[in-house]
Design brief:
By secondary structure, the chain is α+β, with helices and mostly antiparallel strands. It has 15 helices and eight strands. α2 (16-40) runs antiparallel to α3, α12 (351-360) runs antiparallel to α13 and α13 runs antiparallel to α14 (388-410). 21% of the residues are buried.
């Protein structure tokens, strides 16, 4: 059997074209087998090895197969002989002699064809599986995707595969995604991409097909208590507490409306924005109870702006939760969070002031930034609190490392990503988010604006107070109302109407 296949390979290698084809096909086949065994054993996990295994080797394998008949074609043309004559020249009479199951040559070709089909089928399956893994998406194009990979791993959706949101369902979506992937590879190869990558992502699947597989409007009801803590810039880094009753209802039957009223199935909101960036709204159209629509125009903009947008969107989850996964932090909120979690010792004098100052300085690259953050914080304490070094040296070191982690996670010089390159529209900081629509500039034909009443979505129980709201412990949804009433009765002698 072995001699038969060696004879077949020698017979097929009629010139340099077919010899190269045989070498390329055979070597790519065995290289794949070896690399796949190493990957299954966990020895090789690098995404670039995966690219070689599942993209480069299949291409080489198919190219080698094509070169073999091409070599035969070139040989017959140059020698002016037929394929049948070439077969008799390259193979023995016994190889060509017909038996009950065909000639040895036919048997060998049939078996190798079957092996090729199985091999290419396994390759295709493994390639699709490999390319669906988040590790591939985040690390294969490291220089470009590293910011998204870094933030993805820290996100609430870090166990959700990238393809769940970025690739649709069905064959058409699969083909589109692979064609788009090919263009991305070309863009990376020839440096055709923008830095930072522009948002919003135009080809992102609709939220109805992604977000609402786990979060659906019918379940958006009730109220939630949210407590936010921020720290002052004083020596004691004094905490300030803001406690909110968040109204998250979708306004379903028997439930109060809140923030998710915007995506309720019975409501429909359409809008368009300047340059399709979804930052400055041109007009908003809201479905009314009588099935008519009410339209609010931005009086601050001329009607000609309507021509600048080629996208009319139906508002969905990602219009507010635009950073649901790839979350870039606000620097002050990041510092407040790690102080609250106890990752930075709040007893260090002016620690919030110094750590935030270290983050907000301009650094030319990552290595310089990490070095200067270290110097900025240590120099301050060496100068202002030298006696503290021996007592709290470990705590200062820990604070420095936490700040470096924040900086490394959010700032990416290679992609021109700095603070607020990708702002969140959740909330209403810096007049973004809610205030894109809820402002006095958007008005209907009767000159009425969209409501800016804060209590549409939340009520304050405490605002920048020096102590936490004392009825937060052991509170369930069913007792929220009673708890609020008790609080104001105890504090003010009466119940405050929200």
């Amino acid at each position: 059997m072995r001699d038969r296949y060696l004879t077949f390979i020698r017979g097929m290698s009629v010139n340099w074209w077919s010899k190269i084809g045989v070498i390329v096909t055979t070597s790519s086949f065995f290289t794949f087998i070896i690399l796949e065994l190493f990957r299954l054993a966990g020895v090789l996990t690098n995404a670039y090895v995966g690219l070689i295994t599942y993209l480069s080797l299949p291409v080489l394998f198919i190219l080698g197969l094509l070169l073999i008949p091409f070599g035969w074609f070139r040989y017959t043309r140059s020698s002016d002989i037929s394929f049948s004559q070439l077969l008799k020249i390259r193979f023995d009479t016994d190889d060509l002699r017909e038996h009950e199951t065909g000639s040895h040559l036919v048997q060998t070709i049939a078996l190798l064809t079957l092996i090729n089909i199985v091999f290419l089928g396994v390759l295709s399956t493994q390639m699709l599986h490999f390319m669906d893994e988040a590790h591939f998406c985040g690390t294969a194009c490291h220089s470009v995707m590293n910011p998204e990979w870094t933030t993805y791993q820290q996100s609430p959706h870090s166990r959700v595969k990238c393809v769940e949101c970025h690739v649709g369902e069905g064959v058409d979506a699969l083909i589109d995604s692979k064609l788009n992937g090919m263009w991305q590879m070309i863009s990376v190869t020839f440096d055709l991409y923008e830095c930072p990558i522009p948002t919003p992502v135009r080809n992102l699947r609709p939220a109805r097909e992604t977000c609402e597989k786990c979060h659906w409007p019918e379940k958006f009801h009730g109220n939630r208590i949210v407590e936010k803590v921020n720290y002052k810039f004083d020596k004691e880094n004094s905490p300030q507490y803001t406690t909110l009753v968040m109204k998250i209802g979708s306004g379903g039957e028997g439930f109060v409306a809140g923030s998710h009223w915007h995506v309720s199935n019975k409501n429909r909101i359409k809008y368009t924005s300047v340059d399709d960036e979804r930052e400055e709204i041109i007009w908003v159209e809201v479905l009314q109870s009588d099935s008519s629509f009410k339209k609010y125009y931005n009086k601050k903009l001329s009607l000609s702006n309507d021509e600048k947008s080629d996208e009319i969107r139906v508002l969905d989850c990602v219009d507010c939760h635009n950073r649901a996964t790839h979350i870039y932090q606000d620097p002050e909120q990041a510092i407040d969070e790690i102080i609250q979690r106890g990752l930075i010792d709040r007893s260090l004098p002016y620690i919030k002031q110094r750590t935030l100052g270290a983050l907000l300085n301009n650094y030319p690259d990552l290595d310089t930034g990490l070095k200067e953050i270290d110097n900025y914080i240590w120099n301050y304490y060496n100068k202002e609190f030298p006696n503290l070094i021996s007592e709290k040296g470990d705590e200062i070191t820990n604070a420095v490392e936490e700040v470096k982690t924040i900086y490394s996670r959010n700032i990416h010089h290679r992609m021109n990503i700095t603070w607020n390159s990708y702002p969140s529209h959740l909330g209403h900081k810096d007049n973004r988010g809610c205030f894109r629509c809820h402002n006095s500039n958007l008005r209907d034909d009767e000159d009425n604006s969209i409501s800016m009443d804060c209590t549409l979505c939340h009520s304050f129980l405490a605002l920048d107070e020096d102590r936490a709201f004392k009825y937060l412990d052991n509170v369930s949804d069913n007792t929220t109302g009673d708890m609020i009433h008790k609080y104001f009765k105890d504090e003010f002698g009466k119940v405050k109407d929200f």
